[in-house]
Each structure stands twice: as structure tokens, then as C-alpha cells.
Amino acid sequence: MQMAQFAITNLYVDKVDENKLVEEAIIKMLAQLDPHSTYSDAQEVKKMNEPLVGNFEGIGVQFNMVEDTLFVIQPVSNGPSEKVGILAGDRIVAVNDTAIAGVKMSTEDIMSRLRGPKDSKVNLTIVRRGIKDPLHFKVVRDKIPIYSLDASYMIQPKTGYIRINRFGATTAEEFNKSLKELQKKGMKDLILDLQGNGGGYLNAAIDLANEFLEQKELIVYTEGRNSQRSEFFAKGTGDFKKGKLIVLVDEFSASASEIVTGAIQDWDRGVVVGRRSFGKGLVQRPIDLPDGSMIRLTVARYYTPAGRCIQKPYKAGEKESEDGSFTSYNQDLIHRYNNGEMTSADSIHFPDSLKCLTKKLKRVVYAGGGIMPDYFVPVDTTQYTVYHQNIAAKGVILKTTMKFIENNRKSLLAKYNKFETYEKDFTISEDILKEMREMADKEKITFDEKQYQQSLPLIKAQLKALIARDLWDMTEYFRVINQSNPSVQRALEILSSTEYENILKSGKRL
């Protein structure tokens, strides 16, 4: 490799970009190994680490892009933007005298202008509803926290609900804080929502699993050709070792999510509800390179306490496309849909050779990729139509929400001073739906009455949830949307009946 690089550098007829050549060579080599050994340049490393480290440096606003304009949903509490008086509903139209509205600038370019080192200053031009002239603010950038928890609330009088979106540096701390708050409100049982959670730090997964397991119970172990077996045990210091526990997973729950779920299932600590998880069980070791770039090299595999390998099958070095990507591996979820796995538990079959037994109740569980739930919940396709897909993909539902909020924020907050009142009394009116349909027409989305009526309950739920999020926060969004989430509703039914005990005792998958 070094000899080839030396020859090209010193003998090749034209001048070449050596760094680019080396990068491409590394990428091609890693593509011969497995789907998760990857190379990231210095800029990619920084972006990749921000959500897991738990903070970034910027102005501190939640925002959406609406018609080429940055629309502030909420300023971060006690963050730099809130401190200078920027409000929900403001539109940021210029950064340091450079227009960012109406100029077709990418979201990434806008974010790069708003973010910057702590204590650096940025000048923002704001358009505010009801104010004729633009407003000017000087914001001093600061560290902005990124939270792992999307929602935490009492979903029923004795049942708490916590949703985690990733496993980062602050996940265990956030979870423990929310857990104690819910316990003060009388929580006895818990629904832990890991749907769509793509993973993160191993230590965060271990710390979370520790909340549920007894001392010296194995959480996960790793093993590889040149990596000795490493075992990770619960300390027994968790705050929810008793009480019913349901874990929600789906086909996008991966890695750290699967470690937690597998440990809970293998120790018969709780019931897993949903669909088979993604199946990402390869351990990557980060290798930092001198220029700030990084190789993440697979060195071992994750195994659950019962000895199940979490990783789904792949063919090492298999190249099925020009860029060397693992096409069949990446299309696994499509294959699951086509094979009927997403809609029928009867379509899922595991050979007896992959059979394992749980640690306490000796229930049958299977290896072979991902965590198979104890209670299967199919994808609900009844309300999804092409019309709904189009209005969602083109941002029509989101834009309808933004426009409604912009015109009615003050009156809504005055009328619904508490979320509970909003949840009970607010309904999506025909005027809002008419506005949405007209917006869809402008986006050249063909209206289909039958499909519209079929998707209407879903559309109304999404609109109401998004309005709640913009008036309050993500917890309120999930308090609305969970009312139509099949897995959440099934979990509540299991907890309120004898099914929970029956699933654990019988070992049968339902």
C-alpha cells in the first residue's frame, strides 16, 4: 500500500490529490469486510458524535424549514436565543447580513452558519408576526444540550411511558430523572419505547439495562477472533427492578436498543412488544487518524445473556453494486415487507438450530438476527395511502401545522392553558383540512377522495400531535400520537389484563 502510494506520488504523469486517493482506497478496503466497518472524514466525525456526546455549540432553537424560511418552533429553554428575546414563531431571514430566506439555501448550509464556537457572536435578522420592520438580535453562541428522551409521562394512572430516541452520554441520567418523577406520580408499571431507536453508546445501553436487572445478571457479552470475551453485568443498583415492564421495538430498533431488549427478554424481566428489531450486533472499534478522520472497524459481535447473536446474516465482502455497498443487506427491511413478516407473525420462521432458552423461565427465544418480540404487532397499513404518502413527503402536513400555529398561537394558548384541556377539547376543523388540501394542490398532488377519507384519521392525529408539539414539547406530541400507535395501545391492553403473566409463564409468542 505504502509502496503504491509512493510510486503514484513520485512517478505518476499528472499531479494527484493524495489525500483523496488514500480516502478512496480505505473506503474500498472496508467495503470488502462487513456492512458496519466504515470510514468518516474529520467533518463527518464531528457531526456523527454531536447527538451522542449530548451537546453542540450554536444559537439554541428548534426549527423547521417552511417555504425556504427558517421557522422557530421553540427556543431552547435558557439558551442563547431565548436570553436575547427570540420567540416561537419568529422567522430567521438573515445571518450576519447574508440572506437565508427565499434563496434556496440548503438546511445544512443554514445550520453551518448558525452553529459556531462557544462565545462567538452571530447577528440574526428576524421577521415577527405583527411587527412591521425586521428585528435584529446579536446572539452569543453556547453549548446546546441534545436530549435522548423524546417523552416521559403517565399514560395511565399506574403506568408510565418513556421514549428514548438514541443512546448517548446523558441517556442514563435523563432516564433515571424521568423514572423518579413518574414514580412520585404513582407509577407501578412502565412502557419503555425503543421504536425507531438506532442505538448509540454501549455504556449507555448497559447503564439503562442496569435499571431493570438484579446484581450480577449478565447484560451482554462481546466476542471476536482477536477480541477475548468481555462480559458486562448489572450492578443491582437500578430503580425499576420490580413492576411490570414492556419494551416496544420495531424494525428500526438497532444496536444498543437490541442489547437492552435482549437482556430484558433473556432474563424474563419484561415483555417485548412490536416487530423483529433490525439486527445490528457488530462491535466497532473507533481508530482515530492523524487528520481527525476515523475508521470504525468491526472487531467483535454482541451476544445476549442466552447466547444469541444479535447480528443478522451478511456475506463478507459481497459487492452487489458499483459503490461496493452491501445491497442485499441494506434491503433486508424491504425483503421483510415482501415476505409478509411485517403483517403476519406466521410468516416468520426460525430453524431449531437457532433455538435458545431464557435464563429464568426457560422460554424459547431465537438467534439469527434481531430480537423477536414476545407479542407481535403488525404494521398498520389500513390508513396509509399514496395520497397521504405524498402530502407527508412534500411537507404539506408540516406546513399546514406551521401556518396554523403562526396565525393562532396566542389564541390557542389562551384557550388551552393546559395540555390536558387541549387533548380533551381540541379537534382538527374542516378549515384546517381545507387549507391542507389547497396546499397539496399547489404542490401538484392529485386529490383522491377515497384515499383522503381512508387516511383522514391518521392525518387528523398527525396534525393535532404536531400542533401540540409546537405549543408545548415532544412529550405532548407523543401523548397525542400514541393514542393511535398500535404497539402502544396493545401494550396498555396487555398490562391491564392477565396477558402479561400468561406470556411470561407460557413462553408462547402471540
UniProtKB/TrEMBL annotation:
SUPFAM superfamilies: ClpP/crotonase (SSF52096), PDZ domain-like (SSF50156). It holds the Pfam family PDZ_2. GO terms for molecular function: endopeptidase activity; serine-type peptidase activity. Keywords: Hydrolase, Protease, Serine protease. The keyword Protease applies. GO terms for cellular component: outer membrane-bounded periplasmic space. Residues 54-130 form the PDZ domain. Belongs to the peptidase S41A family. This is Carboxy-terminal processing protease. It comes from Bacteroides graminisolvens DSM 19988 = JCM 15093.
